[in-house]
Amino acid sequence: MTTAGAVVVGGGIGGMSVAAELAAAGVERPVLLEAESELARHTTGRSAASYIPGHGSTPMRALVAASRDRFDALADEAGHPFLRPRPVLHVATTADEERVLRDEILPLDPVEELTPAEAVRRWPALRSDAVRAAGWVADAHDADPIGLHQHYRRRFRHAGGTIRTGAPVVGMAPASTGWHLDLPDDGLDTDLVVLAAGAWTDRLLALAGAPVLGLQAYRRTIAIVRADVRPDDPFAVSAADAWYAKPEGRYLLVSPSEETPQDPGDARPDELDVALGLERVDAVTTLGLRSVVTSWAGQRTFAPDRTLVVGERVPGLAVVAGQGGSGIETAPAAAALAAAVLLGRPVPDDLRRCGVEPAAYHPDRLL
């Protein structure tokens, strides 16, 4: 029987970043378990991968803000950046979208209002007769999800962590000093279990006999399309989340921004959603999109209030899940928050200054 100081279940960016922070904080013999044969298969590696100030619910925006300087610190460690500048252009093309833009997006500090003419100057592919209003986020960036994940993986291993792939948890039960986890070939005893398994987290809570959170997984489709793009074009986003588009090398990345509920599993793109994404972008641009190079789908998992869950569900059994579409952009701050909360330590000052308060993320808020 193996004994671990902490066991993190889930090998995506959420689990890997938390595991690295726990190891850096001095947890001995930490172990990360991943049910699949490879890490970061379902969500992290399929992300549109952006860092957008002002994105998400109020608690999520605080984590995004707190992650900015931490991305820079991680870049200094790694010797290369994980963020590359790409401003975001919020576009309203209907009366309903303009209402959303003015009521929900423009009041946010990071967002600057643009006239329709200014929006077209910044993304010339926009049809001038289609734009009613626009907003601009200058400090937005493309992110490198695989590079970030690999860096956290190196940090975890350097601190003495063990990674086991192809290791699904098939049983969990309280033990005399914490929890016992059953794996197909052996078991683990640990003081602390951290469930960071995305859409599978509720199933694991149920396996442990703990109350579930009501997490819901949604499919999100992305297509890579041949188009006349400029490398410095912005990340253009419908104000009402009806579509988004941004350069991807010499191609254009396009999504219909759909949220199709699904059970935990391997998300597959739907041809109708791919076509819908092209149709929606075509309706407001002069791009004339036709040729799809490739497409894929990812899985985004939300708590009922669309805010990350961090904290113990029952003693010794904690959850870090429900990042939704913000897993990459919040990872540095979310992992630091989780390590502090789960080890009973003060929340770092830089997180507090950005408005990160543990109670806003604790699972008890969902009771």
The tally of structural domains comes to 2
Total number of helical segments?
9
Care to count the β-strands?
22
Q: Please, what is the CATH homologous superfamily of the largest domain?
A: FAD/NAD(P)-binding domain
Write down the overall mean pLDDT. Answer: 95
Query: What is the C-level CATH assignment of the largest domain?
Result: Alpha Beta
Low-pLDDT sequence parts? none
CATH architecture of the largest domain: 3-Layer(bba) Sandwich
Please state the CA-atom Rg, rounded to the nearest Å: 21 Å
Query: Which fold does the CATH topology of the largest domain refer to?
Result: FAD/NAD(P)-binding domain
Keywords: Oxidoreductase
InterPro entries: FAD-dep_OxRdtase, FAD/NAD-bd_sf
Pfam family, one: DAO
EC number: 1.4.99.6
Describe the structure.
The protein has 367 residues and is an alpha/beta fold. It folds into 2 domains: 2-67 and 145-213 and 305-366, FAD/NAD(P)-binding domain; 88-138 and 216-302, D-Amino Acid Oxidase, subunit A, domain 2 (D-Amino Acid Oxidase, Chain A, domain 2). It has 9 helices and 22 strands. The protein has helices spanning 13-24, 58-78, 95-105, 116-122, 145-158, 201-207, 271-284, 327-342, 349-353; strands at 2-4, 7-9, 31-34, 50-51, 83-85, 88-92, 111-114, 133-137, 141-143, 162-165, 171-175, 178-182, 187-190, 193-195, 216-226, 235-238, 244-248, 251-255, 260-262, 292-302, 309-314, 317-321. The strands form 4 sheets. Strands 6, 7, 8, 15, 16, 17, 18, 19 and 20 form a 9-stranded mixed sheet that branches. Strands 10-3-2-14-22-21 form a 6-stranded mixed sheet, with helices on both faces. α1 packs parallel to α5 (145-158), α1 packs parallel to α8 and α2 (58-78) packs across α8. The longest helix is centred in the N-terminal third of the chain and has 21 residues, at 58-78. Residues 7-340 form the FAD dependent oxidoreductase domain. Its EC number is 1.4.99.6. Keywords: Oxidoreductase. Pfam families: DAO. One of its GO terms (molecular function) is oxidoreductase activity.
